[in-house]
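U., I forgot to send this yesterday:
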Amino acid sequence: LWALGLMLAVYLPAIPAIFWIVNVIRFMVGVCVAVLAAPLMAAMMASSSGDDFAGRSGPDWMLLVALVLQPALLVLGFLLAAMMLYPAGELVNMMFLGVMSGASQGSVVGPITMVAWIGVYVAMMVLAVHSCFAVINLVPEGVMQFVGSQAGAQGIGQQQTDKTTHGLEAGAAGA
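Result:
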């Protein structure tokens, strides 16, 4: 029970900060890439016609658009995730109470079964919060793909976040 309680008390409130920090680092990596690509961008934009071999400026402009829009899109993604969190939590609570009462109706719930139900609830709530705050990552990435930009650092931090959360969820399930 201590492990499950610590998951709810410590890890669950930290999920928004973890997702936010990972995505801000992704943005900073994208800025570093843009700084390194700046001399090449200047050379590509130097052509007068703008469309011959040395004058392909479309990707350069997309990189600039991505660097300007991504901070605002990160904040917007965070706000959307925060707005989704309350309804998602209510949904998990309603579904869990319905399933638990239906599954344990007419029987005595022992201590081992109660710990198992608490483990299921913790896993459901952690997954719901992860799903909500994945929006922080999806909004900038989706908008940039929509406008045709591949700028930024896609994939940075995502594997590490997934690996960490999978390990924590496995630990909670084991507890």
